[in-house]
Amino acid sequence: MNLQEGREKFIQTWGTLGSNWGINRTMAQIHALLLISPEALSAEDIMEQLKISRGNTNMNVRALMDWGLVFKELKAGERREFFYAEKDMWKVAMQVVKERRKRELEPLFGTMTDLKKVKDASAEGQQFESTIANLDSVIAKADKTLDLLVKADESWFMNNFLKLMMK
Amino acid sequence: MNLQEGREKFIQTWGTLGSNWGINRTMAQIHALLLISPEALSAEDIMEQLKISRGNTNMNVRALMDWGLVFKELKAGERREFFYAEKDMWKVAMQVVKERRKRELEPLFGTMTDLKKVKDASAEGQQFESTIANLDSVIAKADKTLDLLVKADESWFMNNFLKLMMK
DNA sequence: TTTTTCTTTCAAAAAGTATTGAAAGTTTTA
DNA sequence: TAAAACTTTCAATACTTTTTGAAAGAAAAA
Questions:
Q1: Which structural domain range is residue B26 located in?
Q2: Contact at 8 Å (CB) between A162 and A152?
Q3: Disulfide: which of A84, B8, B17, B140 matches A40 by Cβ 3.0-4.6 Å?
Q4: Using 50, 70 and 90 to split pLDDT, how confident is the model at B23?
Q5: Is the C-beta of residue A13 closer than 7 Å to nucleic acid chain C?
Q6: What is the per-residue pLDDT across B114-149, written as a single tens digit (0 to 9) for each?
Q7: How many domains are contained in chain A?
Q8: Among A122, A128, A135, whose Cβ lies nearest the Cβ of B89?
Q9: A11 plus A41 within the same structural domain
């Protein structure tokens, strides 16, 4: 497998992986392309390399910036914008965890609070209450663990401790 | 919010959550319904409660069984099949982790092995090699961590240790 | 064996999601 | 100010995924 084939395979694999996890395939492909590009790319570059339209490129590059995975670079004497990706994959993983926690876990807390208020003496009510209480405790645990993981990334000690644990 | 409203809200929330994570919405809704049902339900029950077709019900119940989240129950003197869900949400989470690891991480290893073979002296080649090597190490770390987590579930000591850590 | 009851399959239709490309918007340059 | 160079928007279109329902299959009952 030569470089060109490798690049294509990586872009396609990352795209498939993304769509398995509820992330737009093109968004993941642009991310992959930027991850393996040594220099920041313009919208035009991305359009050409992935053979996608201008609109599609623009939308997905912005989404990637929203996720905190891609940044703009302003080149002196250049009018157009260039984009580059965070390339430290541990940081990428932490950023994704952080964002999904914010976007999905946080709204869930509100819903769980509402659902925990339901009271009903029937068998169905009992099962409902018990499932909700149990789920709530698992969600709370997951949240604490993810928080610990993300914070570890910002603390030298925990960072090393975790890396040791995962050896 | 009364029981009926709570049940509907839970089913809808679980469905949305599932589809955010690349899981068929209906599959997640059937799972939610079974999670809050004290008794095992027949295909007919599921069809009625979620207002979906027989084919859809059958396909998604089977998918849930494939995931190891739902089981068949044979009732004495009853011809049709009944279905119930594992209700311990910690076990549910572990089962999902286990399955996704098997379905997605394992095939990834093969691809990474191929991609690691690419050698190219150009700047693009250098960035490609470095991104792939870094990604490979993060994936390997994640895999070890998930393995630890799943195994912990089966070990009394690690189970208690982890629960303590996540306090 | 035939009928009944239930499960499974799958092609067609519907619903949902992503993509295009042209037009409008914005910023810089002349 | 006007033109040029680029970015953003969005309605129409294309594509993907899900759902339906009728038919076929299977197992139990008559």
A1: 3-85
A2: yes
A3: A84
A4: very high
A5: no
A6: 999 999 999 999 999 999 999 999 999 999 989 988
A7: 2
A8: A135
A9: yes
